[in-house]
Design goal:
Layout lengths: L27 E15 L5 E9 L2 E7 L3 H5 L7 E11 L2 E11 L5 H4 L7 H12 L5 H11 L2 H9 L13 H19 L5 H10 L8 E3 L3 E3 L1 H5 L2 H12 L6 H12 L15 H22 L2
Parallel strand pairs: 3-5
Antiparallel strand pairs: 1-2, 1-4, 2-3, 4-5, 6-7
Helix pairs in contact: 3-6, 6-7, 6-11, 7-10, 7-11, 10-11
């Protein structure tokens, strides 16, 4: 019996790229994923194999490499983007990818691999602009105009998460959290007219601004050198100082700075206590949105 040569064999069906959330059993996979975890293990027969956890913007899935494990492991490190060829199989009632080919991927858009905001970003920007328009104090309004018309800063606000693994830990999480806290602040001012609405709303809009410089983006969300060494509170103060308009009086500036520095609690302030009702309000409102969002995402 003669066998067809490779040139005349019927070609295998082409693999279409799919997201993790779309994968089904027996599906051929040919796509790019981030390596979240990589463990070198030993099978019962003594052969090494790799246990991987892969992720894209829609979720994560385990994967196994049974052939040439050590050679494959040398091609990447945890946090890299990799191009995978393989097949989806079911093992112990869980889907996993049996990898037949793996190479490191270059030039991958982080948005392809990292989770993204659930809400529409242009809509969130519109909400933020609407809330900023509720500030009438000339100095505070000038600060917001300067911040929100800075193209680089605005792009960072759209892109940044709030954290790497806590609340709003996805691209666009920062603007989603900012809008939520600012909306809560505005509503609270309607209930409690003694609050300085201009101060509280401005503080809510800018309280996490430093997070646009806190993170790096690749196959995973990382910390920048500034984020690791200074933290987002100091980075926020640097950005606000750079955008402070001349018409923002010293007393208003100091009140705003106190709100920002105290929004994780009074321990970050020199006196160890809140020096304004607005600082207390921002602290509580920030915690409400962060804690509730964290519970929705990770459980109570």
């Amino acid at each position: 019996m003669t066998h067809p040569t490779p040139e005349t064999s019927t070609p295998a069906p082409a693999a279409a790229p799919h997201t993790v959330s779309e994968l089904v059993e027996r599906q051929v996979v040919d796509g790019v994923f981030a390596v979240v975890r990589a463990d070198r293990l030993t099978a019962r027969g003594g052969q090494p194999y790799l246990a991987l956890q892969l992720r894209d913007r829609t979720g994560s899935i385990p994967a196994r490499v049974f052939r040439d494990a050590d050679s494959v492991l040398a091609r990447f490190k945890v946090g890299d983007a990799v191009k995978i060829r393989g097949r989806v199989e079911r093992f112990r009632e869980q889907l996993q990818i049996e990898v037949q080919g793996l190479v490191r991927a270059e030039g991958v858009d982080p948005a392809q691999l990292l989770p993204t905001a659930y809400r529409d970003l242009p809509e969130l920007e519109g909400f933020l602009e609407h809330l900023a328009a509720e500030v009438h104090d000339p100095g505070l309004r000038g600060l917001l105009v300067s911040v929100l018309t800075d193209a680089e800063l605005r792009e960072g606000l759209r892109r940044a998460p709030c954290s790497r693994s806590g609340h709003h830990a996805y691209l666009g999480g920062l603007i989603e959290h900012t809008v939520a806290v600012t909306q809560l602040a505005w509503e609270l001012c309607q209930l409690h007219p003694r609050l300085d609405s201009d101060l509280l709303v401005t503080a809510a809009i800018v309280h996490d601004l430093g997070k646009i410089r806190e993170f790096t983006y690749g196959a995973a969300i990382g910390l920048s050198d500034e984020g690791r060494l200074l933290g987002h509170l100091e980075l926020t103060m640097q950005l606000l100082t750079a955008h402070r308009p001349s018409e923002l009086a010293d007393d208003r500036w100091l009140s705003l700075c106190h709100c920002v520095l105290a929004h994780h609690g009074p321990g970050a302030t020199p006196t160890g206590s809140f020096q304004s009702y607005e600082a207390l309000a921002l602290y509580r409102l920030n915690a409400v949105d962060a804690d509730l969002k964290g519970a929705f995402e990770h459980g109570l």
